[in-house]
Amino acid sequence: MKIYSFSRGGIKFEDGSAPDRVQSRLAFLPEIVILPLAAESGSRSIPVVSVGQHIEEGMLVARGQGSGSANIHSPIPGRLVKTIKWEPAPGFLSDALVIRLEGGFNKLGKPEIKHEWTGLNWFELRSLIAEYGVIEMDGLGRPLCDIFSKNSTVGSPLTFVVRCVFDDPWLAAEYCLCKERLKAVAEGCLITARAAGAATVLFAVSAAERKLGNALLEAAKRCDTSGQFTLAEILVGSRYPQHSDYEMETVLRQYAKKEDLIKGGMFMLSPATTAAVYNAVVLRVPVLDRYVAVGGPALKDRAVIKVRIGSRLRDLFAECGGFNVKTEESEVIAVIGSPLLGRAASGLDEPILKTSRSVFVSAVKRRGTALKKSFWFNKISKFLPAAACISCGECRNVCPVRLDPEDVYKRITYGKQGILSSNCIGCGCCDAVCPSKLPLCTVIARSPFGGDACAV
Ligand code: SF4
Ligand code: SF4
After folding, report:
1. Residue 358 buriedness (CB in 10 A; 0-12 / 13-18 / 19+)
2. Ligand 1 pocket, 53 CB below 6 A?
């Protein structure tokens, strides 16, 4: 079977400080959860509970208001103790609900009740998906129904691409989820396709994970008893950043040309999103938890943890045995997301969001720079004296969109005209290879959250 891969650039991304992709474990229940009312896309949900009110597990606590915002449910039973201002990054301010654990659980540990969905039409499925607060469980976290509406083109074919691409060791949580909830992920794919109006479901799988891809495809075929979907698998490269939208579209275009399978529009989602769809439609359970990969050189242990949404980073770090550095000597640095793409955590009370698929933690000595080189190294380069560019050309070799990161970085830094950075997909490959530790990606991509890591 042919492997479709993007043509140029990229890196082999390995990081020994990422958790092993073996098996997940369940987090202890958090004493406190913090639920921001605005997603990273900025739209705000409106609270429907008041301070002091008792809240049941899974109860609606904030309602989405049109495009960009989603319903929010309480992951724990408890009491709303207060609302706070949450500022994950300068210029991004949101209200957040603080719920303290109290009372009994009505979902945890109860037997699952499954609801038949095959008789539901796209409108009924979308209503359930919206009601239970399903959003894309990575990236910007757009409400799923917004994505469906954007891709609705009456009468024209639509392909749903399930992104099972593991080119980044920090995608360990997605990998464990696929293995442990294979049937839910696969059935969720069919439900998602029906809700979106897609007739074709394409599993895009890293070539190195062919076995997992086959298992997903077979599980989907078994669920599609009436044979209403066209189901297929495409093997893609495992070189980072294969899973990015840009590179995925590149290989899908090649595939469409050769295999004549993709016709009309397409949209892509992760397995975590289709598992959330399954929970909403089949189990009628809102998004209350998610798999998170937690690790990094400053933690004693690393693991894929199934954690309640709104849990604080400090609780996750405690699950991993705490820090292996003395905090009076070192500054601990936490980044949410992949080391190459992540954004700095605002502090130890930063909550896990529906989109938080990984957290990595490192540390820098308050004096000295005794750090081991690795992929996370450059993310904390602002603590370190960066060396001058030695014009080695490494950044040019790895840039998948054919930019010259050295040139663009220097133009931006020195305020020169003619900056051509709009094609940058912010993959971080240039950061990872630069021997001078220059924060190329951070400067070029200009993350809305500031990009670079900061101390917590
Ligand atoms: S990789 Fe770093 S040192 Fe080498 S050319 Fe690029 S910016 Fe300069
Ligand atoms: S310039 Fe942008 S696209 Fe190119 S390697 Fe750097 S981060 Fe990736």
Report:
1. buried
2. no
